[in-house]
Specification:
Helices cover 35% and strands 18% of the residues. By secondary structure, it is an alpha+beta fold. It has one domain. The longest helix is centred in the middle third of the chain and has 14 residues, at 46-59. The chain is globular. The mean pLDDT is 89.
Length: 97
């Protein structure tokens, strides 16, 4: 990880992004929380995962040059996001989407 922006900073940005509904800011397409919540009801597939990662990298510039992956288990209300080699589980029960 870049020493200027640490893993905790990136986790906070991702957490904020997960909470924000798409187009949640006037004049900006930032966010994906509402769509992501609906995607979590289905099994992950490459097309959906790529769509989510692309949107995340578009909205959070620090992720553009990093390897990002996402996974989840249907019915678990959690999403696991890997950035480079750092892993974090985000719990949708505590997110207000």
């Amino acid at each position: 990880m870049n020493s200027d922006i640490g893993w905790n900073d990136i986790k906070e940005q991702i957490n904020h992004w997960l909470k924000a509904p798409e187009n949640g800011y006037l004049g900006s397409g930032f966010g994906f929380g509402d769509k992501l919540a609906s995607f979590l009801k289905e099994q992950p597939n490459d097309s959906v995962v790529n769509q989510i990662v692309s949107k995340m990298q578009e909205d959070i510039p620090v992720l553009k040059q990093r390897k990002v992956s996402i996974n989840w288990v249907v019915g678990n209300n959690q999403v696991v996001i890997v950035v480079d080699k750092e892993i974090e589980t985000f719990d949708f029960d505590t997110l207000s989407v």
